[in-house]
Amino acid sequence: MAFSAIFYTSSPSLTLHCKTHRPIFSHAAYFSKSLIVKASSTLDYSKVSVDEKALAPTKTNNWQWKFKDNTINIYYEEHEKYNNDSSKNILMVPTISDVSTVEEWRSVARDIVQRVGKFNWRATIVDWPGLGYSDRPKLEYNADVMEKFLVDFINAPDGPINGLENDLVVFGGGHAATLTIRAAKQGFLKPQAIAAIAPTWAGPLPIVFGRDSSMETRYGLLRGTLRAPAVGWMMYNMLVSNEKAIESQYKSHVYANPENVTPDIIETRYALTKRKGARYAPAAFLTGLLDPVQSREEFLDLFAAMEGKIPVAVLSTEGSPKRSKAEMEALRGAKGVSKFIEIPGALLPQEEYPIKVAEELYRFLQENFDSRA
User: Fold this and answer.
1) Which fold has domain 22-203+296-372?
2) Residues 100 and 54: beta-carbon distance below 8 Å
3) pTM (2 d.p.)
4) Fewest CB atoms within 10 A around its CB: which of 106, 278, 322, 362?
5) Pairing relation of β-strands 35-38 and 88-93?
6) In sequence order, what are the residues at sequence separation of 6 or more whose Cβ sits closer than 8 angstroms to the Cβ of residue 329?
7) DSSP states of 349-364
8) Domain residue ranges of the chain, discontinuous segments joined by +
9) What is the tens place of the pLDDT at every residue in 230-289?
């Protein structure tokens, strides 16, 4: 999530004038070269949506993630058409941002699970710790913490995915996609396929201002201020937790079409910023602590590590901010990317254009799993 603001703290060395952008998967298939697809259709996807009556999850629950001395309630939803043990499973992981939420994936989940094909698909959507409807303790959030959570959620014997971790497809937006691939490269996860939707790796400030020592010092000061008891809430309320700021962000770069930003979206996202502990994870994201890698070269290396192991689809968006779009474009034809698709949208296409995203993701599933039936 981005914002326009001037940050001032008691330290004169921290003055950031910025307009930042949120930059806010053995059953392997083998590919000798990438397939690049330019998605097109006569449908106006800004006018199409999944039946709202079908959005309610089949099941909602909380899983207790034990991390160090903390027990953190993690919110997740399950969407399925039939209660069928033979269903294949998808984990959908929200884009990391200050208003990250399972809601961004609901329409896509309901579309895919209602489709009739060779497989019945079941979808689980999970909120990150510190974000969405999960607990938001005052942790030292960083990329390693988020990766460990994702690995634990999938692999834990008492977790919702228990027994399915080797028969799982993962769809992730933004940083979530890159964290998933990082975990897969290290062997912590072994999904059957991965789809990266508008993938990113740099937080809002680092992608604009870089990561030299001077800027890292300023990021640290800003992060410390946002986490402080009183002034932290005041700054967070000024920069993030107000409806005008959220609306401006959505209209400028989160959505491609400002007309798709409804009052209901702004109201629900604003409510998320008022949850207890809401500022801690966003403070880490904003200042780059949740970045899975530190450079484009490392970003490309993650995807290259998937070559010959699992199919990876990248859904790049036509209306992403310039810097984020450049990182997505670097994956076009890149090693390890088995399919590159350009779709409408900006940084949150799964929420703005769910039917189009569901259509492309379902086609990806068919291409890689129907032939194995």
Assistant:
1) Rossmann fold (3.40.50)
2) no
3) 0.86
4) 322
5) unpaired
6) 316
7) HHHHSHHHHHHHHHHH
8) 22-203+296-372
9) 999 999 999 889 999 999 999 999 999 999 999 999 999 999 999 999 999 999 999 999
